[in-house]
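Sequence only, no structure available. Ideas?
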Amino acid sequence: MKVQEIREKFVQFFESKNHIKYESSPLIPQNDPTLLFANAGMNQFKDFFTGKANPNHKRAVTIQKCVRAGGKHNDLENVGLTARHHTFFEMLGNFSFGDYFKEEAIVFAWEFLTDVLKIPKDKLFITVHHSDDEALEIWHQKIGIPKNKIFKKGDKDNFWEMGDTGPCGPCTEIFYDHGPDHSTPGLVLKEGQDILEDELRYVEIWNLVFMQFEKSKEGIKPLPNPSIDTGAGLERIAAVLQGKYWNYDTDAFTPIIKKIEDISGKKYTEKESQSSFRVVSDHIRSATMLITDGVIPSNEGRGYVLRRIIRRAVRHLRLLNAPDGSFCKIVPAVFETLGKEYPQNKTNSALAEKLLLLEEKKFLETLDLGLKYLNESLKKDVLNGVFKGDAAFKLYDTYGFPLDLTELILQEQGLKVDTKAFDSSMLKRKEDSKKSWKATGQVDNKIFFEAKEKCGETQFTGYQKTNEFSKLLYKIDLGENTALIFDKTPFYGESGGQAGDSGNIKLNGNLIAHISDTQKPVENLFVHICDTDACELLEISETYELQIDIQRRELTKRNHSATHLLQSALIEVLGKHVKQAGSSVDFEKLRFDFTHMQAVSAEELQQVEELVNQKINSALEVNANIMTKDEAIHKGALALFGEKYGDNVRVLTMGDFSTELCGGTHVDNTKEISLFVILSESSLSTGVRRIEATTSDNAFHYLTRRSRLLGEIERLANAKDTASIDKFNYYIEEVKNKSKEIAQLKDKLQSSQSDELFSNPQKIGDFVFVSAIAPEGADSRKISDIFMDKNNNGILLLFGQKGDKQSILIRRPKDLKTIHCGNILKSALELIGGRGGGKPELAQGSGELGGIEVVTRFVKKSIEEAIIK
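Reply:
I predicted one. Tokens follow.
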């Protein structure tokens, strides 16, 4: 049975049991800073389990894309070595939110596996939590599993946790017996161990979690409603149904492996190459899906993990002798098996190919540098045949060398790695990385969920109206501010990159309070932020007139509509790999982040700006229509990658130039935008650029100011247009040349002055010792350079003055190893109330004014003792 058929049968089965199919959530968890990546099907339902939110349907079924390559669940280092560990995998899941519980969950799982998929019952074994006699009896009495095939396990095996915090509970697992041919070699079970300890033979294929608790920093507390969260690994079930032991031998991977064979010229059946085939085929799936869900390679957080995955795969491609630049060519094969289930990811495949090619190129350059670093490290970082762990970690962290690659290279030279020191460095790096993505605290939206339960959804009328008579339903105290909830509102709540509206609250035409901002903390609940003192006069159930700031709204609409034109223009000028990576729109300007591999040239920016203005002047009609997500995709609507959309979406079209999913407010015709001007283009991170622009009145004012500035420049330069630019370039070049001349004259002056400074040398052994006071404002470091050029066996003690501090510099020749300038200076500074140190060859510091003679005697004596010694 192919993986696509398994997906379809799973969904159909649970839909027949009154479950509603939910789309997979993106791999970047939304509104959950406790997770690095989506690692289980239940992530998107966290608020349903904790009781913060109530679902529209009590039963759900999903096919969830998951990545386990960081955080609590991390399988990265096992990939390629085992038959079933993956960084990316698909989780089949069914869920109950306070509806059915243990018995129904167990019955559903057993029925699907044995009746629908026809897996032999004698091949299946069960585990339960050691305290869960109820689950054990359901398996035994209801399903008919003999007790000798049900095994009790502890927390490590049968208590599931989402992460350091979140919903959790005991679980029961279903194992499949792959047969005695796959038993762990040499395994002898001790007394008290069960047969499932043979992990190579017996493989878990389904985990049924009984969500009963929530874990927090304060401890574990019961959930309001016991719920069900199950997860079955699609790749593992495919292996069972296709008669394979290795997941990589199923059709989830075979198209990818075939492509790697074509690229490398090697065969997957070659034993020595199989591990590399498996690593590459796994990692291309995770890298492709992460990028097409909005993760960009970087040096921290999620981007750092993605970069590690890419580099590990590229290194294994090299072991397969694949040509440089091959990794990105495997992307189309990924979507042969994944594309139908995740069409939004597939639409971003061009971006994945571009970014992967860039990352591979960068890594291959780094690889050569890493080999150079390793060769240099072998001269100084080896002790008693062991390579230092911190050096091995630098190879890993900076140059992308996995530990096994370093060990392999060192093994050829009869050396080992200090793996304990390596692990210690790795642990510190993981903690630092965790801090970079994990928020210090999460805003508790429970009060807003509760408000929505009491008040219902807010009716938004702002697409048609700028004022509305609305009933005040609820107040939430936020300290200095108060959140107001009305039954309907024309105020747009901040979302989709568009800032929230501001405006006024009136009663009988009189101003009562000012709304400074509008937010949507939970879906379809509009929260109006108002000063607490002003809100005291507002009464629940009273009807008020809500009136938005029309001028700000109009300017915001123009900027937002221009953002859509900008995205389409960028795609037309730069290519289809351009994807929105974030945006911010308010009444002053717009900011648009997008994927692109290099800086946008001045010519390209001009093309983009001209194209947007052309579409503005074309007076394109702007229309918004509600349609199903599938209809929108068929229509070619652009979506923000990494976002999860509902079944029905709002599609905004601007003529035939722009079609996007968007819930924001917009102009009715592009002519209303009037004018579009790009303010700046810059780099946000590797592969992500940022354009800031403005429109309408703001654009006109900007160009007016620029025109006046240009006029002033022309007046000062006494030249017009480009001639003024040439003249200023000439002036700038002249200033540079004069600055160089001044610097050279200063150096000559210091050199001539130094002859007087160095005129009283004293002999200490074979060396010359000079103590001097530098002229006011002189560069002590440069004077020491001049001294060393003239005295290759000289030792300099140089005093200076910086404000109310006495500065001191000590410098000696490189080959005078017996003197450590830093140590001498540290002791000398103590004599004048200073602190500091430095390197063996050169040290600088400062202390209280005076004491030159005392310091000179101490330093000279220290040098004499060191040289004589």
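The radius of gyration is 34 Å.
Hope that gets you unstuck.
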